[in-house]
Amino acid sequence: MAAPIGNKNSEKYTLEQELPIFQELLERTQAGEYLSIQEVVMKSKYSRQIFYYLCDRFVDLDTIRKEISESIIAVVSRGSLENKYNASASIWRMKQLGEKDQQYQDHTSKGEKMQDKTVIKFVRK
């Protein structure tokens, strides 16, 4: 007799089993043990494909993965501010993890709307 539709008898991974492992990875990242998401995956018991499959499958695990990335950014930022890590390499790493720097100039003359008038000045020699 076939198993009923929708059964989960053959599932290898469950949230209850994997959640503590992801939480441990997060704690180790916050302690400064890992400096990239690739390192986290490499040192975990999962292959890259399984790690991201679990993140796609379980929202809670994907949330922890995002927290891991944010923790790496915090660790790298702190390390560069304390001269533990090279600043250029730290900025590159943080950009790889999604941080953005934004520069803009105000072309509206101190917050006021620019006038459409063209001003021409003539100078005598």
Give a verbal description of the structure.
The structure is a single chain. This protein is an all-alpha fold and 125 residues long. It has a domain at 15-96. The chain is built from five helices and no strands. The chain has helices at 15-30, 37-43, 48-57, 59-81, 87-96. Helix 4 (59-81) packs antiparallel against helix 5. The mean pLDDT is 81.
How much beta, percentage-wise? under 5%
Proportion in helices: 40-55%
Main β-sheet: number of strands, strand sense, barrel status? none
Q: Could you state the oligomeric state of the chains shown?
A: single chain
What is the CA-based Rg, rounded?
25 Å
Q: What form results from the Cα inertia axes? A: flat
**Low-confidence spans: pLDDT under 50, at least 5 residues?**
none
Averaged pLDDT: 81
Number of helices: 5
Helix/strand order, N-terminal first:
HHHHH
Number of DSSP-assigned strands? 0
Q: Report the structural category.
A: mainly alpha
| Termini gap | 105 Å
Map the helices and strands.
Elements: H1 15-30, H2 37-43, H3 48-57, H4 59-81, H5 87-96
Helix pairs in contact: 1-4, 3-4, 4-5
What are the key terms here?
single chain, 125 residues, mainly alpha
Short description:
By secondary structure, the chain is an all-alpha fold.
